[in-house]
Specification:
heterodimer, A: 304 residues, alpha/beta, TIM Barrel, globular, B: 336 residues, eight-stranded parallel beta barrel
């Protein structure tokens, strides 16, 4: 029996001694274009990976015109250096351009910012009938009338909707396949995941980090009125900070300009043969290692 | 784009609002629907478009048909969520019903829906919602290939960034948010859902049903723990602080692009969206009249040939909205 490939995802400024030696390395940031590497930095890492026989996946964020040009500069340089280069695209324009630009020397992957998963961690709570029924209550309107709020369990349609992702439509996947895209990425949702099984598409599962939301920059998330200068070098990305609110089932984690939830339980849907790769973000492991590093047995998933 | 040609696009949630908003100065309108057939399957969260509940949405397809018959030629229907394969046939059915009743445009973000509208040779004009997060010209061109003729640009773009995208895509109409709504998160990349919270003291009702046992009004929901939109909740941080969240839809001090309208026009923007489908009609009318007054004040002296400096409409803002604005209220003073 073979198992899904387990990979680590690091930031560009990870110390060389912490870079994992595996068959493929994920590098980059999925939400901040200020953290795109300089082409020479990217090429140096790609050379080192090539010497180790390690393939490279470049993680890229959503992109403005400036970020788009910088990304193409990086990819143009990496194409000649990296082994098995993949680019995870969180921008439709980049995905389309890469698909037609490098004649197989660079494989575009649809990133999880584009797949349309229901990844608000509160969704898992709608299946907890006893917790919901405990919240049933009376509300009073401003005109003095009242009404009773009551729990309605999710319909089977809603339950499926919450576990699927909108990219997983046969027409859309057929279109992407025609473009040259054969892989997309998803988060490991606490309510479970359900894939269509569309032939010819591979799926990467990110765990335990669940992408939930992002702002344009860090300052928007820390409440600063002035933009925090992004250096993309030594001080970025900043340490992960946690957010708590009683209506959420657990903490949220702010990493750079994005917000994540965590889930390391693998539900039945994760056993789908389409999922042939599992990626863990090193940053989350550093933030709360005991909490989020899944055990090896969690990852005994069948491979295609 | 001459300033005089700027069009104001107003939010509508009931058919009777249409004539009043057009009379107030709206050139186009947009609306959403959340019919009972959909609610019974998926609930009343923002699953059909980015607004939850039946206050911001038409509760029936009959209401939708009424709007299409009154003002379909200048109206867009928001079908701007991302959908699962199972939902697609119902979404397309609503789009066809809209088109059949005279609706001209749909506001879309799902590439799968765009593909299918194209495949079916739909006559509907396709406006790309800001939920598609079109931040660069390559993405505009990707969606243009799927049949999009207008792009609503995300609020997170700066004026120079808007100008560059627009210059690179001369065959596309561009629309921006000009009044009312803002969020720290990028809408199209935000999976926090918009549900309906039920605080005490609300002035509205939520589609109640009469309970079979006692006949008392009940509102059923899948998530009774929902406390509000994540962008408005006061999160406590791990360091013991409290994350300050400003309510971006603050009715007293709406987000605004008035002072930047001349520059937006020169950057190639032709359409100004007023947010707030769920707002009371009086606030929608006030917003439309305000933007119309700004456009009228600008247009005699400005054309694309002459260029324009930023014009100060803070006095008008204070008079109309009752409190002075500051730079944090401005969409385009603080970007990127």
């Amino acid at each position: 029996m073979s198992y899904a490939e387990r990979l680590r995802w690091c930031q560009w400024n990870a110390r060389p001694d912490v870079l994992p030696s595996r068959s493929r390395l994920y590098v980059g940031n999925e939400s901040c274009e200020a953290l795109l590497p300089r082409p020479d930095v990217a090429c140096e890492l790609a050379r080192r990976m090539r010497e180790m026989g390690t393939s490279l996946t470049l993680m890229t964020p959503f992109l403005t015109e400036v970020g788009f040009r910088r990304t193409l500069d990086v990819v143009d340089r990496l194409v000649g250096v990296a082994v098995g280069l993949e680019v995870v695209c969180n921008d439709w324009g980049l995905c389309a351009v890469l698909a037609g630009r490098y004649e197989g020397r660079c494989t575009p992957v649809v990133g999880r910012l584009l797949v349309g998963q229901r990844s608000d961690p509160r969704w898992a709570q709608v299946f907890d009938a006893s917790a919901q029924q405990a919240q049933e209550r009376q509300v009073r309107h401003s005109d003095g009338t009242t009404a009773r709020l009551a729990y309605r369990p999710p319909t089977s349609s809603l339950a499926r909707d919450l576990r699927r992702c909108s990219l997983d439509q046969s027409d859309l996947l057929g279109f992407l396949k025609h473009l040259g895209v054969h892989r997309f990425e998803i988060s490991n949702l606490p309510q479970g995941i359900q894939l269509s099984g569309y032939t010819g598409f591979h799926v990467t599962l990110h765990t335990p980090g669940i992408f939930v939301s992002t702002a344009r920059n860090c300052s928007a998330l820390v409440g600063s009125r002035e933009p925090i200068p992004c250096c993309g070098e030594s001080i970025c990305p900043p340490p992960i900070t946690t957010w708590y609110h009683a209506s959420f089932p657990g903490p949220l984690y702010r990493f750079c300009n994005a917000v994540y939830a965590l889930n390391s339980s693998l539900h039945e849907g994760c056993m789908s043969p389409q999922i042939d790769r599992i990626v863990t973000c090193a940053a989350f492991n550093d933030a709360a290692p005991g909490e989020i590093e899944p055990t090896a047995s969690d990852h005994r998933l069948p491979q295609l | 784009m001459p300033v005089a040609a700027l069009k104001v696009v107003a939010p509508v949630s009931r058919p009777e609002e249409v004539a009043l908003l057009i009379e107030a100065g709206a050139d186009e309108i947009y609306c959403g629907v959340l019919p009972s057939q959909w609610r019974s399957k998926y609930g009343d969260w923002d699953s059909l478009n980015r607004r939850q509940g039946i206050v911001a949405n038409l509760p029936t397809v009959e209401g939708l048909q009424a709007i299409a018959s009154i003002a379909g030629s200048v109206a867009a229907l928001a079908l701007n969520q991302r959908y699962t394969e199972e939902q697609i046939p119902q979404v397309l059915e609503i789009a066809e019903l809209w088109a059949g009743a005279g609706g001209r445009s749909v506001l879309v973000s799902d590439p799968g829906i765009l593909l299918l509208l194209k495949k079916r040779h739909s006559g509907l004009l396709r406006h790309l919602s800001l939920l598609a997060t079109c931040l660069n010209s390559a993405t505009v061109q990707f969606f243009q290939g799927l049949g999009v003729s207008r792009v609503v640009l995300p609020r997170s773009l700066s004026l120079p960034e808007i100008r560059e995208v627009s210059l690179n895509c001369p065959d596309i109409e561009f629309e921006v948010m000009a009044l009312n709504e803002d969020c720290k998160f990028i809408d199209g990349l935000c999976a926090f859902y918009h549900g309906t919270s039920f605080p005490d003291g609300v002035s509205t009702t939520f589609g109640y049903e009469r309970a079979p046992d006692d006949g008392l009004p009940r509102s059923y929901t899948h998530d009774l723990t929902y406390a509000g939109h994540a962008c408005e909740l006061p999160f406590r941080t791990g360091r013991g602080g409290l994350l300050r969240q400003r309510h971006r839809d603050d009715l007293g001090r709406p987000r605004c692009a008035a002072c930047a309208l001349g520059e937006l026009a020169l950057a190639g923007v032709g359409f100004l969206k007023v947010g707030g489908r769920g707002l009371p009609l009086a606030l929608k009318l006030r917003a439309v009249r305000f933007l119309r007054e700004v456009v009228s004040a600008l247009s005699p002296c400005v054309s694309a040939v002459m260029g324009i400096d930023r014009t100060d409409f803070s006095g008008l803002y204070a008079r109309v909205f009752g409190s002075p604005c500051d730079s944090s209220d401005c969409y385009y003073s603080r970007k990127p």
